[in-house]
Structure formats: C-alpha cells, structure tokens
Amino acid sequence: xxLSTDQQAEIDQAREGATKTLRPIAPALEEILFQxxxxxxxxxxxxxxxxGDDAAIVQAARVSYGxxxxxxxxxxxxxxxxxxxxxxxxxxxxxxxxxxxxxxxxARQWIRHRTAxxxxxxxxxxxxxxxxxxPAPEHLAAQSAVNRQGRGDVLSGDEAAxxxxxxxxxxxxxxxxxxxxxxxxxxGEALDPARQGLARELAxxxxxxxxxxxxxxxxxxxxxLNFLSLRADAHAQYEIRAYATAMLGTVAAWVPVAHQAFLDxxxxxxxxxxxxxxxxxxxxxxxxxxxxxxxxxxxxxxxxVAALGFSDGKRGS
Length: 317
Ligand SMILES: Cc1cc2nc3c(=O)[nH]c(=O)nc-3n(C[C@H](O)[C@H](O)[C@H](O)COP(=O)(O)OP(=O)(O)OC[C@H]3O[C@@H](n4cnc5c(N)ncnc54)[C@H](O)[C@@H]3O)c2cc1C
What we know:
This protein has about 325 residues and is an alpha+beta fold. It has twelve helices and seven strands. The chain has a five-stranded antiparallel β-sheet with strand order 1-2-3-7-4. A two-stranded antiparallel ribbon has the order 5-6.
C-alpha cells in the first residue's frame, strides 16, 4: 500500500472540495483526480491538476473565439491530422501536473526529460521513508545476451531467491546506517541524546538507488507524448515503463481523441528509412529480397522484419 491512512484522508478531503468552474473539464479524469494509481511495489502516479481537453487542442489549432468544437468527427479528423503531420503546438495548449513516487534509479532516467517543471522531495530538509523497490519475481531477469541495454530470461530458483535477499539486505542495511548517522527517528526524536547526528544532506548519500523519492512533475501534452513515446515503448526499462503505462491511462481519461491519435500515429507506428521503403517497394513489386542484397545491415533488416511482421524466409515472391 503506497499511501498512509493520513495521506489517503488528505486525498479524500481534497476530492470532497468540489468547485464550480467555467473552465472545461475532462469528466473521466475528474473521476481519478488526486487518487494514487499504484505503480511497482511502493510507487504511484496521481494527477494533481490539468488544463485543457481535446477541444482545447482544436480551439488552439483553429484560433477560435469559442470552444472551437465543430462536429466530433471533424475534431477527431483535425487532431489526427495534427498528430500525423507533427503540427505540434496545439498539443502544447494542454498541461498536466502529476505527483509521482518512484525509485531513485527510475528518477535518474526520468529527469533526463528536460521539458517538464519538476520539484522533488528534499532529502536535505526531510528524512526519506524506509521504502525500497524490490522487483517482483517475474521481473528479476538476467542480462540480455543480445542487447546490452536489456534483459533476458527470468531468474529462477536459488539464484532468484539469493538476488532478492541481497537487494533487500543491502537496502535495509544502508537505510539502517542512514538512520543511525542521522541519529533521528521518524518522529524527529534523537536516537542517542549524546550524539549530534550527521546532516541530512550528507547522510542521504548512503542510500541505495532503490530507495523511493517523490516529485511534482508538470508538462504540456506535446512533451508528455514525447516522454510516453520513449518510456511506454517496449524497449524502455520495465520499471519506468510501468509508470509510463499508468500515465498513458490518465491521458486516455483526459484527452481520449488525442490519446487514440497518439496510439495510432506514434506509439503503434513505425518509421521506415528510405532504404527500408525501397525494400518494401521491391517486395510489393513481387521481388524476393534477402538481407545481403537489401542495402540494409543485419540490425536494420531485423528491425524491418519485426516492423512488417513477415517471417524470415518469406520476403516477397
Ligand atoms: C531506450 C533509451 C536508452 C537510453 N540510453 C541512454 C544512455 O545510455 N545514456 C544517456 O545518457 N541517456 C540515455 N537515454 C536518454 C536519452 O538520451 C534522452 O536524454 C532522454 O530520452 C530524453 O530525451 P529528450 O532529450 O528527447 O527529452 P527532453 O529533454 O524532454 O527534450 C524533448 C525535446 O526537446 C528538445 N530539447 C530539449 N532540451 C534541449 C536542449 N538543451 N538542446 C536542444 N534540444 C533540446 C529536443 O528536441 C528533445 O528531443 C536513453 C533513453 C532511452 C529512451
């Protein structure tokens, strides 16, 4: 359970304070506003605030005086067109603010996305919670033999149990030492009145990267979709992908038409190089093309095979 009773009570209280507004709202997103959507073992994503909806994208694209909406089908067609042709600025008119609780090693990948506004929980000012990420058994995988940035088969038996023990023990021991160096319990009382305790800004350097941190993260829809195109992709590390998948659900609730356009024209689409396109055209003309005479290197060829979904040995005829 990622939230304490007090934290859940604060969220419940915030959800009770409904206000009337002239601003457009996204009803499905209102349903989950402020609520923590669990991710990994102790993490979450929750939407704190947002601005705009599908109609705001249309409104900006048409620079209209009212809501900009014509027929739903016309709006859908326009949003699809904007997505397809990378007319991006109308998507920047929508903004969303998240509260995210995530392991520090995931935060390090995430923070590389520079187009968001971020405010992180201060471990100089406050004491981090005793919470570490421990992968579920099905995510405890070996190093991939073919991809240096990927995972291979799932570990099993004694090896899996031993790895989990090491992860748990190291994180626990480091946290215990952190608490000892701080000389402070969770309530701020001195553990040993005879000691001064090390400054929080120094003691934190002993924590493992699996320790959870938190931040507020605000971004416009265009840059959020860029983030999701990289981090909800099958090639992204599972742990950050788990967050991206949860956020994709919030995008579906917020801007359902833009979300579908994103799935159709970005996430589910592939880019073919000029050479790949030539290969496809040769195949469509009935030619049987093999990798050596395709003009593609082996990796590009494998990517084309995967993108087109044809089995090796059946490449046009
Ligand atoms: C599968 C994967 C593997 C990765 N491996 C590594 C790795 O091994 N090592 C590593 O260091 N990183 C790695 N990264 C991180 C990657 O290189 C990017 O830093 C990260 O994905 C953020 O992408 P971005 O710059 O497009 O995003 P953002 O920072 O959100 O920027 C969005 C866009 O804004 C523009 N932009 C933003 N800031 C600037 C700027 N200062 N100058 C010019 N244009 C700007 C660019 O067009 C950019 O594409 C990896 C990422 C992925 C998805």
